[in-house]
Amino acid sequence: MSTSGMIDVLPLSPLQEGLFFQHLYHRDGPDVYVTQLVLDLSGDLDRAVLRRSWDAVLTRHPHLGAAFVHEGLDRPVQILSRGVVTPWRETDLTGAGEDTDAAVTKELDADRTRRFTPAEPPLIRLLLARTGPARHRLAITSHHILMDGWSVPILVRELLTLYAAGGDPAALPLPVPYRAYLAWLAGRDTEAAAAAWRAALSGVDEPTLVAPGGTPPATPRQTGTLLGAEHTDALVRLARLLGVTLSDVVQSAWAVVLGALTGRDDVVFGVVTAGRPAEIAGIDELPGLFINTVPARVRLSPRTALSEVPARLRGQRLDLEPHEFLSLAEIQAAAGVGELFDTVVVFENYPSGDPGTEAGGLRLTGVHGTDATHYPLMLAVVPGDRLRLRLDHAPGQPAGDVLAALVSVLTTMTVEPDRRLAHVDPFGGQSRRLLEERNDTEHRVPQTSLTGYLEQALRRFGTDVAVIDGDQRLTYEELDRRSAALAAELARRGAGPERAVGLHVSRSAALVVALLAIVRSGAAYLPLDPQYPAERLRYMIDEARPALVLTDGELPDGTPALHLADVPVAGRAPAPADDPASIASIIFTSGSTGAPKGVAGTRAGLLNRLAWFAELQPFAGNEALLAKSSISFIDGTVEILQTLVHGGRVVMADAATAVDTAALADLVARHEVRVLTAVPSLLLALLDEASAGPPGRLSSLRLVLSSGEPMPAELPARLAVQSPDARLVNFCGCTEVSSESLFAFCDAHDRSIGVPLWNNRAYVLNGALRPVRTGVAGDLYYGGAGVGRGYVRRPGATAERFVADPFGPPGARMFRTGDRVAYRRDGTLIHLGRSDGQLKVRGVRIEPSEVEAALTRHPAVAAAAVAVRRPPGGDPLLVGYVTPATGTVPDPADLRRYVATLLPPALVPSVLAVLDRLPRMPNGKVDRRGLPDPGPGTTAASAPAGPREQVLCELFAEVLGRPAVGPADDFFGLGGHSLLATRLIARIRSALGTEVTLRSLFETPTPAGLAARLGDAGRDPLEVLLPLRDVSGRPPLFCFHPAGGFSWCYTGLLRQLPADQPVFGLQARGLTDPARVADSADDMVAEYTRRIRALGAPGPYSLLGWSLGGQLAHAAAARLQAEGEKPGLLVMLDSYPPETLPETPSLDHPEILRLVLREYFGVEPPAGAPLDTAAATALLRAAGVADLNETHVEAVARILPAASAAARAYRPPVFDGDLLFFRATRGWSGPPPDPRAWQPYVSGGIEIHEVDTTHGRMTRPAELAQISAVLRPRLPGTA
After folding, report:
1. Are 1202 and 1077 contacting, i.e. CB atoms less than 8 angstroms apart?
2. What are residue 439's phi and psi, to 5 degrees?
3. Same-domain check for residues 194 and 165
4. pLDDT (0 to 100) of residue 74
5. Predicted TM-score (pTM) of this structure
């Protein structure tokens, strides 16, 4: 914009700053803050006088013609100038006939939808439309940043007064300048205001949003209603009785509706304040933007009466009134929450334009227009004899329902002001009716006991195989006989209803026998995982007090035990009384008090779960299920029982196999497993393994059950590739409700947590235990058949989480899960997170206090906290934070080992960080959001010692979601765990084509240690023919070194090419001995082709090279042809014939070293510092980019100029074949070289693919991924 005529530069008011931000943020589409005021005029209109009158208005108030700029400034400013001309357009619509109104609407709409450019004043334009004889409409279209609703009547009054005076500015007194208001703002105490707002909003930890995902910019729609005069009078009387304003009453009703709409009992919404300080004389007659939007907070306790809310709101408003000048952005910053609300209430109690006003023969017959907001819901309240309520709303918002709910609450306030909020239902029972419809899950279950249900199956399937445990097979007959004998022995030793029997048995067929025996004895099974620490097992036994413990191993001293070796092989006890309400299991979960809690599940709940599964997946014959889950989780026992009652085969995975994805994939293939249960992260690791190995290993799967973690977006599609006939079911539930309560069939487009199982119910409730509306977040409660009895010997914890079910039959209870969910319109549920401090990692529920209690038991720890952190691209990690006890320095590795003796593996933090102090909130609680992310943990002083080590470092980093990992970094110390380990093993097998086991990773969990274990220890990474991936199966790919002599740059290909593709690198022979640097290209090529042929690998060979390597690959291809070989594929990465290469100046030794450091290792040597071989070697080691000694560095410094000279002197032969060429498109100082320069040297065609990169980056991972996508299908041996 031009600065000529500039008269002032002013800051922006608080709301102007907000509106300016909205304009910049939403640059595309309609600007919702373009407003339009329309005046209906009748009489003889003098258009010239009207225009002169408007010009006078703009001259009086130059801020209405301001430009708004921000480029190059710390904060935006508004620039006021003289002579700003308002765009003025006239149109005659009298010829439209009966369509005049439609024509007018079209013109006005078109004018309103045109955006303004803030830097190009004025942000206002006028349209005068003639609509009939002596009838006109004047549309004043402007941006809201200029003026507020209070300004409308001022503007109209001034315009008509000036018109009556013929446009003479003297007809009106001089106004107060807008600068006076901005000066008043500048004198306010912003620190005191911020402190006041911070205190008022203390405890608000999340926003109150009706549209959490936001809404796209769109012109708001309007829905309104007019209250009756009697209703309005009743509201006014109520306000007087309570000593509040009518605005306080309406805002209170809005808060109640908002609570029901969002499911929150602590709501925040925006309130528009007039913002015109009484201290400034004449400000009430000044058009401009003075209003501000500030938060109003209302706590909605169920015990609060409706009549109490307005007084609280009034008290809060009066306390904050002196601080209402602060901008919303500053208030939000003080509160520390970010966005606070997305609904606003505005009370339009300013003077209105007065239809009927006459001026100079012109009569104002109507004033109307459109307001502006970007909020999805804005309630405008217009007082009068009949209160008008208008909702400006984004498309898709349930405005009609919301407005009806508001009227309902306002009615209740006048009729029954003392009604408690717990008994106020703004939406008239809609949510309750939906809750009942969505929980119509009643279904008849078999009329038998749990024991009878199992025994029927054992006898029905007789000689069919029931259990496979390695080479051992158990038929249903054998399982029946052995479990009956053990059940009889258990009964003889005191087992029976309401007693527990411990199950301390390794994963084997004996585990299945023992589980069935406990159930048949009438007792509850108590899983005691043999892999748990002894202290944990002792605690569980002491808490559950089992009659005895079945074991095949060692138990803590004093435990009443029955060893499986001592069990008789025959005997049958009479069936015990099988009360459905008696306990079926005691499963321990992580405890909020620092100790685990035992959940008592009922036999009725377990029977219902097993019967429901029969309908979900009827077993066709003797189909197999892979049992791999730990028995410490309820899924581990349910997956066994649900298979047996339907005649399937239980394929037992032992403890080692259960965490080894390769072994699991082999088991699935060997036994044609149909059903598999696994958490999503393990499924992804299993799919990684399947894609890296022989095809079809998972093709037998028909049903995959997954729970415990959010469903990853890519899982359904990836499963469909490996298991095309499998259905994927997403389960949601918990131990307290007999495993799963919700289920959903998943695909790539729908990953909801579904709907309830048979006879189960799922409620989404607010803090008053009232149902919330569709799409509103609420707390998830489970009711119905699956609800357990409670926590063993924990009445307090039971009463807290197992509460009376107001929607079920008398005496029913429901379980409060702590999950936040919402219903979708189709009746399915989506998961939104947790409402308590409970964490979940890899499907395991974790109470932070239990882990923190274990950490603080260590003598070196003063305080501890835990949190879940997800590194970019990685899986969630449980991170522990500790502060040292006085005089100590905790060692993280030692601390992890210590905690592992107290907690199950899933509860041991993956990463431990030592802090000086824990961050805390003002109330003294640990601020978990303030806990830092764990550091990368990379050992910078160390670098890969070879290409295999380099690949392993890259794979470690990829799987762990870290930017880099050093050779000495510990996989588990950086947050690795068993599921990530299986994923890493699959990636290593695929990239290196070598067999590697989980055990080797656990024993040597560093890239360097693993590389040595895989065979790098005795191999020279600088040898001429370097096996990057030495496997058999396909003709090999040979990659030729660039001028620096190394072929390590091609390791990135290994992750992109098939796992059975052999890859070898050709390296300069002088790397290990500078005296043996080759003198010519012929010399180099002769050496390389000799080694290729000596390898004896089957052809046809593929040859690839980058830069100089491309020339060498071409020469080697021609030489191999001359020697009778048949190269299959010649590939160049940005390599050109010698004659196209520019002349390069000769460099001295230090200059060559600088070039080597910069171009080949990305290390920038210090400017001006002397550089020799020793200094260059030290720089490389300090940067951690190469493990080279001085001999190696000196060799590279000799190879580089020698190879470059050899390349320029070389004259290429003709290769009889095609060339596949990848060309770098960026980074050339002049015209880029043309790949077609190779045409004289190849008899076939040249296929060119452009890569958006520079020459020097052609072998970076992203570029190699793009190149490999083209290369992969061209390699010989590819089907």
Report:
1. yes
2. -115, 25
3. no
4. 66
5. 0.62
